[in-house]
């Protein structure tokens, strides 16, 4: 009888030890919302404790609005992510410029999100000043790999994008079309960075986890339906 009791107890303990791992794996692969459509819970401005006044929520979207000289700065998630799949929609104003950054390291000694975080470019390809270089157009891995400009919708209309990062394998989609694919942290990647503007920043893309950031480039921009799943 005692042996049976010990067997039952051991079975229960072994089963219990497996449950958290299974639950964690299931949770890790579930989509979670990063924006509730009502307020900026889960976000703060870079190097600040809360979102800056220029970031607002209007009609179910996050809006950057500098009217009245409202103070801004890049908006970042409270949480950090490493392997993930991120989906969202963005809309840019005429002539506007912004970006979606990831692997952003927040450190008082690092002055801006782009010193560490690679960027999917958000841009009005037609009228923005920064539209002369292919790798600066919307959907591109900024200043590194150009996206197909035909995949982007014009200013004032919504674009649906997806960013997937898994063990350094990085892929961008724009409106259902794959527009960027590369492998981070390889000799080929190091060569890309060495021939870009980021060569002057030694910590660029060196962190394997970090915050998601929405860039304040001074222009009105909208983001909505922001969700992520950890891989």
Helix/strand-derived category reads: alpha+beta
Please give the count of helices: 2
Kindly state the mean pLDDT as a whole number?
Answer: 91
Instruction: Tell me the radius of gyration.
Output: 21 Å
- Show unreliable segments: 2-17
Q: How is the biggest beta sheet arranged?
A: 8 strands, antiparallel
Helix content: 10-25%
- How far apart, in Å, are the first and last alpha carbons? 45 Å
Beta-strand fraction estimate: 25-35%
Number of strands: 13
Give the name of the CATH architecture of the largest domain.
Answer: Sandwich
CATH topology of the largest domain, by name, is Jelly Rolls
Order of helices and strands: HEEEEEEEEEEEHEE
InterPro entries: AL/BT2_dom
Keywords: Signal
Signal peptide: 1-25
Domain 3-keto-alpha-glucoside-1,2-lyase/3-keto-2-hydroxy-glucal hydratase: 30-229
Task: Characterise the protein shown here.
InterPro entries: AL/BT2_dom. Residues 30-229 form the 3-keto-alpha-glucoside-1,2-lyase/3-keto-2-hydroxy-glucal hydratase domain. With 231 residues, the chain is α+β, with helices and mostly antiparallel strands. The protein has 2 domains: 1-30; 33-230, Jelly Rolls (Sandwich), CATH 2.60.120.560. The protein is 15% helix and 32% strand. It has 2 helices and 13 strands; from the N terminus they run H-E-E-E-E-E-E-E-E-E-E-E-H-E-E. The strands form 2 sheets. Strands 1, 3, 4, 6, 9, 10, 11 and 13 form an 8-stranded antiparallel β-sheet that branches. Strands 2-5-12-7-8 form a 5-stranded antiparallel β-sheet, with no helix packed on it. A hairpin with a 2-residue loop joins strand 10 and strand 11. The protein is globular, with a radius of gyration of 21 Å.
